[in-house]
Design goal:
- The protein is of the alpha/beta class and 362 residues long.
- It folds into 2 domains: 3-160, Four Helix Bundle (Hemerythrin (Met), subunit A) (Up-down Bundle); 171-319, 3-Layer(aba) Sandwich (Rossmann fold).
- The chain contains 12 helices and 6 strands.
- The protein has a 6-stranded mixed sheet, with helices on both faces.
- Helix 5 (92-119) packs across helix 7.
- The longest helix has 29 residues, at 41-69.
- It is elongated, with a radius of gyration of 34 Å.
Length: 362
């Protein structure tokens, strides 16, 4: 049975075509279009076989390169790698990239080997057998990395659905339990317009907005709600913890003290205490939101995303923890212009020397 027919049969049995089917189908089709020129039939047959080897292997290598290009230009940041590791496994990305790179090396070696072998082949039968053998080995190399290609595509879609944070910019991560008002607060503080609804788990992945600090551009990250279950978390909660660990310059922890919250203040403060112990290097700004609905005596800032109450005070608390990325000149230096040096009179044209009668002027 021809290679293409076997691939189609496998697709029908499994239901979903693996990536190798489309790659090999394109490669073999392009190889079949070669039109060599030669003085004799045997010369044309040999040249046709050599061109099939070159064109099919080059097409496969081009497609494999396209599958990995997403992770080479530009490469994932450390934070993106931590997100991928939390969702797909710590070494899933590197392992798949390595397996595809090895497959590319094997395909290049196979093409070189087959090119040398074809030069010594005699007769159309031997040439045809060599091409069938080459196609079979090429197909096996591509099929071996089917799981890796599928995994890279899934990782690419995962990263495309998430914002690319600038690792050099300060980042405020807004976190807390579900439905405590994080997204409304993010919309108040930044350019982000997250989806806001009066039910939990509206936010299922991180989103980012930006705010002007006067000296820097602050990244404000909205995160999915965390239920505070030690040792048990879903993928959205894991993404939040990974974002706090890998991206935060400052953590804005939001507590909902109102009776609309499904979780007690004690539960929320328990998560805050655990995170403070887990991330001792991070500064935490704690706010109690929905101040227009409920208040309680505490030292935490009281804010309302609806009325804007407490937002200015919150900004002061955030700025206190964000260091400018570059040194700023003193205020006087940035306002007072330096005095210009006194202008010197321009020298006029030289006075011409008058020639005295009978005396030569040097």
């Amino acid at each position: 049975m021809p290679i293409r027919s076997r691939a189609l049969v496998r697709v029908k049995k499994e239901g979903t075509p693996p990536p190798s089917v489309a790659i090999l189908d394109t490669a073999f089709h392009r190889a079949s279009l070669v039109t060599p020129h030669g003085d004799t039939k045997s010369a044309r047959d040999r040249l046709r076989a050599e061109l099939k080897v070159v064109r099919s292997s080059a097409t496969v290598l081009r497609h494999l390169g396209l599958e990995t290009r997403r992770f080479r230009r530009p490469p994932p940041t450390d934070f993106e790698r931590s997100l991928v590791g939390a969702r797909f496994g710590d070494d899933a990305l590197d392992r798949s990239l390595l397996r595809i790179r090895r497959a590319e090396e094997r395909i290049r070696g196979l093409a070189r080997e087959e090119g040398r072998t074809l030069r010594g082949a005699e007769g159309p039968d031997e040439i045809g057998e060599r091409i069938r053998s080459f196609y079979g080995r090429l197909s096996s190399f591509v099929r071996e990395v089917d799981p890796d290609i599928s995994r890279l595509r899934a990782i690419g879609r995962f990263l495309d659905d998430r914002p690319r944070l600038d690792p050099a910019a300060p980042t405020l991560v807004v976190a807390g339990f579900p439905n405590v008002g994080k997204s409304s607060l993010v919309a108040r503080l930044s350019s982000a317009r997250p989806r806001v609804a009066d039910y939990p788990f509206t936010t299922l992945s991180i989103a980012v907005g930006h705010a002007d600090l006067g000296f820097d551009r602050l990244q404000v990250v909205d995160t999915p709600g965390v239920l505070g279950r030690a040792g048990r978390s879903n993928s959205a909660e894991t993404e939040t913890t990974t974002t706090v660990r890998g991206a935060a310059t400052v953590v804005l922890f939001v507590i909902d003290p109102s009776d609309r919250s499904e979780h007690s203040v004690a539960e929320q403060e328990s998560l805050l205490a655990r995170w403070r112990a887990e991330f001792p290097q991070l500064p935490f700004v704690v706010v109690e939101t929905k101040a227009d609905l409920a208040r309680r005596p505490s030292e935490n800032l009281k804010v309302s995303a609806t009325t804007g109450e407490g937002i200015d005070t919150l900004w002061k608390a955030i700025r206190a923890h964000v260091v400018p990325s570059g040194e700023l000149p003193p205020m006087e230096e940035s306002i007072v212009e330096p005095e210009s040096p006194p202008a010197t009179p321009e020298a006029g044209p030289p006075t011409p020397k008058r020639r005295k009668r009978g005396v030569a002027v040097p």
